[in-house]
Amino acid sequence: MTTPIVHHPRTRSLTMFQALYADLARAHRQRRQQDYQRRLEAKAQHDMLLAMPRMLAR
Questions:
Q1: How many C-beta atoms surround the C-beta of residue 20 within 10 A?
Q2: Confidence of residue 1 (pLDDT cuts 50, 70, 90)
Q3: Could you name the domain of life of the organism this protein comes from (predicted)?
Q4: Is the C or the N end of the chain the one with fewer CB within 10 Å?
Q5: What radius of gyration do the chain's Cα atoms show?
Q6: Alpha carbon of 35 to those of 22, 26, 46, 49: distances in Å?
């Protein structure tokens, strides 16, 4: 005996929404990661520039 799988429109739209939300969250996380990376690199560059005169003075 096989029970037919009934697709409720409510649960289907919910899973669609969940997938969309997961996708958005992933994109946001990636963007935040990239921003953080860029800030780190800029800070490192800035620190290098600040340290340059001391390095050259030796």
A1: 10
A2: low
A3: Bacteria
A4: N
A5: 25
A6: 20, 14, 16, 21
